[in-house]
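seq as requested:
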Amino acid sequence: MTVTSRPFGTTKAGEAVTAFELSCAGGASAVILDYGATVQSLSVPDAAGRLVDVVLGYDTVAEYERHGGYVGATLGRVGNRIGGARFSIGGREYSLVKNDGENTLHGGARGFDKYVWSAALQGDRLVLSRLSPDGEEGFPGSLSVSVSFELTDANSLVITYDADTDAVTPVSLTNHSYFNLAGGGDVLDHVLRLNAERYCEAAPNCLPTGRLPGVEGTPFDFRAPRRLGDALAEENAQTALFGGFDHNFVLSGRDAAQVYCPASGIVMDMRTTMPGVQLYTSNSLDERAGKRGSVMGPHGALCLETQLFPDGMNHYGFPSPLLHPGEHLHSETVYAFSVR
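struct tokens:
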């Protein structure tokens, strides 16, 4: 893997942002911003050997600051929602910043996606790191966190998350890339397989109810490869709530998912050490301009956010997101690209 860097503009606060381009012998390349530890582009060969940028993104820092959607960003301290913007540890209740109605979403009003991270090269990895101070967005403890990006010669993007804390605090880190393996248009013809037999039922506010229904006989059954548009067309009370999928799936193994695009021939296999993945079909992504004149919009991409379960600290039986002093958090997600 080779890495080059270039300026990517400045934030409203005057902070310089750098774009790091990763390239490999397999022909793939990725651009990672130190703003938000963001995947700005990810180009891989299609079946004809042409490079296709398979993630949504913007051309300027100003667009990342102005628009919602967390496009390509690293989320933290806790990706997804925390109900009521509060949780308890050892009988003490902590109140967080509310940025999604009465709830906390993706770390709060200024989550990890809105900071410029420190950057370093460590062997074949680009490592972005930051120290989240005690009390940031209401979370307890100082959290030292790093996210590394590696592009292998087999055209796999490997994202690794590491964190340590000096006080008990919830942590669930993930990446919020929007994938479109055709490089444009909608993703209704994308074929999805998910290694999951259950999913988190969601309430109208997108918080989990605590129930984990089976996928059998529902639009949520992606155990065999299935066209995404066919699943979205099925009548279902859960998908009707959000105009599509915005649900956590309970993974049955590290071989988490596969996405195939017939138009480009690109296949993306996703592996992860995390127990869940949020499938989001960009239902509420309003139409807007993206990089190089592209247009974003509803169902124009899908997200596969590997994670602990949403609102895990408030649901008995969900995997605990609590990180303790002396423990080390480490997780990994791999996006491996090929063609057929």
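Helices lie at 61-66, 228-233, 237-242.
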